[in-house]
Design brief:
about 450 residues; alpha/beta; Purple Acid Phosphatase, chain A, domain 2; 2 domains; nine-stranded mixed β-sheet; six-stranded mixed β-sheet; 8 helices; globular; binds 2-acetamido-2-deoxy-beta-D-glucopyranose
């Protein structure tokens, strides 16, 4: 009874504040004591108070992704909508059959090819949540971005991994705790029970509020259940790691995904609440020599320990390599370059190192919202994803790049296909051809 009174008092307060968009309301600790969270709905975004566990404080506020708001509004009318963080799941006591139930993460913490030898990756890039957070257009923009991601995941069945390749948030616009936006972005994966992993872009950690450094955000992401990892401390950046994709039985690793942190360019000495490791924060927007060395050494050691069982590898990060200019200038490419290439201002040889790995067949990045081409240079496909978010510059149609790996056990090979999936649900497999053009070559990375 006490809880019900508190719930209604809060709802009352919420409705009294309807004119303010995106307002965040502290929720009484009383609600958290049950171990599960209780939801209230504000004028635009739902706020959820989660139970204690997995490093989450009982006072923390969360927003429910927009596509679930109607469900929640309904259920608050009837009773409680509960979010049980410990189970990575949401339980709605009201048995609302119409709602799409969020799925628990059921995988065994191993990425695996399916029984028919497939592994599908959706690359979501440059979503830029949190822009104009105190403006109604900012809130709408984030809702739009969530809709894009939902449409893509509704259209693409059986996505095995969502890779967020940077600029998930526009940290420099976020005055509040950036993790609120972070959870909103990754919710599309978490609510559907799809494994996800992230790497950082140049906009992810400029939050003026605390708790928004790269280390904080990556810790938070990992706590939420992602497959992301921390790179070694003595290597530039934070999100440098690899992911293994195993055979259907989870025994032999068949593919590796190399994830790099291409830097943030922010020289701020940001306070780091969680681990106070300022040394992580390097002021670069390129992949440094020590990252290349880390990749080289780690791969050598990996192959040594795994008897070269890898058939195919790819690499994902945010800012394109300089070789993206070379491939566009000199090779036949497929897709658009409406934006020119804002590549990494320094080249410390990652591409040359990739060429020494015969399994490395693909690199895919984000950063340039008007680019979505792929081209092959020296046996490696260099691709742009497709701008996924309504946030960030540009109004090019939003979408995602999809990769489908195929394992052929008879040949003992893995190959892959890629296509674009748009916010309309449209699928584009054959992108427009672009021939090399010696009269119109880009030779310097644009800013
Ligand atoms: C949201 O998307 C709709 C079209 O789907 C568009 O008309 C509107 O301008 C978008 N709003 C923002 C703030 O981006
Ligand atoms: C930001 O929110 C996260 C998760 O809700 C929390 O762990 C962190 O302590 C918060 N940071 C600050 C500075 O409030
Ligand atoms: C980082 O430290 C490890 C372990 O001490 C070492 O093996 C490695 O060479 C170092 N890497 C760099 C780039 O300094
Ligand atoms: C394109 O190819 C030409 C000829 O191989 C080479 O000289 C030039 O450096 C390439 N362009 C770029 C931007 O690398
Ligand atoms: C690039 O420009 C062309 C021609 O204006 C347009 O058709 C295409 O959709 C644009 N590309 C992207 C990535 O939106
Ligand atoms: C592998 O070989 C078996 C037996 O010849 C055949 O039935 C199967 O279709 C082959 N699988 C693939 C992926 O080609």
């Amino acid at each position: 009874m006490k809880y019900i009174i508190i719930l209604f008092s809060i709802i009352l307060i919420v409705f009294q504040q309807q004119s303010a968009y995106g307002i965040k309301i502290p929720i009484s600790n009383e609600f958290a004591k049950s171990g599960n969270g209780n939801v209230i709905v504000d004028d635009h975004k739902s706020i959820i108070n989660v139970g204690v566990g997995n490093g989450i404080n009982q006072n923390d506020l969360y927003k429910i992704p927009p596509h679930h708001q109607d469900d929640i509004k309904d259920s608050t009318k009837k009773g409680n909508f509960q979010f049980n963080h410990n189970q990575n799941n949401i339980n709605n006591n009201n048995n609302n059959k119409n709602q799409q139930s969020p799925q628990p993460l059921t995988n065994s913490r191993k990425l695996k090819f399916s029984n028919d030898g497939k592994f599908k990756i959706a690359q979501f890039t440059d979503i830029h949540f949190g822009e104009g957070e105190d403006k109604s257009w900012g809130v709408k923009q984030d809702i739009n971005s969530t809709q894009v991601m939902n449409t893509i995941l509704d259209s693409e069945q059986d996505v095995d991994l969502i890779l967020f390749t940077g600029d998930l948030i526009t940290g420099n616009n976020i005055i509040d705790n950036a993790s609120i936006y972070w959870i909103e972005v990754i919710s599309v994966a978490k609510y559907r029970g799809i494994p996800w992993a992230i790497t950082f872009g140049n906009h992810d950690d400029l939050a003026s509020g605390q708790g928004g450094s790269r280390v904080d955000l990556l810790s938070f992401d990992i706590d939420l259940g992602s497959f992301s990892k921390f790179g070694p401390r003595n290597v530039s950046g934070v999100s440098n790691y690899y992911l293994e994709i195993f055979d259907q039985n989870g025994i032999d690793p068949l593919s590796l995904l190399w994830i790099f942190d291409s830097g943030d360019g922010s020289c701020n000495t940001k306070k780091n609440k969680i681990s106070n490791q300022k040394s992580f924060e390097k002021c670069n927007t390129y992949i440094t020599k020590n990252q290349v060395d880390w990749y080289k050494d780690t791969l050598a050691q990996y192959n040594n320990e795994n008897k070269n069982s890898i058939k195919w590898s790819g690499s994902f990060f945010h800012i394109p390599l300089q070789e993206y200019m070379t491939v566009w200038n000199n090779q036949t490419c497929y897709g658009w370059n409406n934006d020119s290439i804002a590549c990494q201002p320094e080249n410390h040889g990652l591409f040359d190192q990739f060429k020494l790995d015969p399994t490395l067949k693909l690199v895919s990045v984000g950063h340039n919202h008007g680019n979505d081409f792929c081209g092959n240079l020296d046996g490696i496909d260099l691709c742009f994803g497709r701008h996924t978010g309504y946030g960030g510059y540009g109004t090019w149609e939003r979408g995602a790049r999809i990769f489908e790996l195929n394992y052929d056990p008879n040949q003992s090979t893995v190959d892959y296909k890629t296509w674009l999936r748009f916010e309309t649900g449209e699928k584009v497999e054959n992108q427009i051809k672009h021939d090399p053009n010696i009269n119109n070559q880009q030779s310097i990375c644009t800013n």
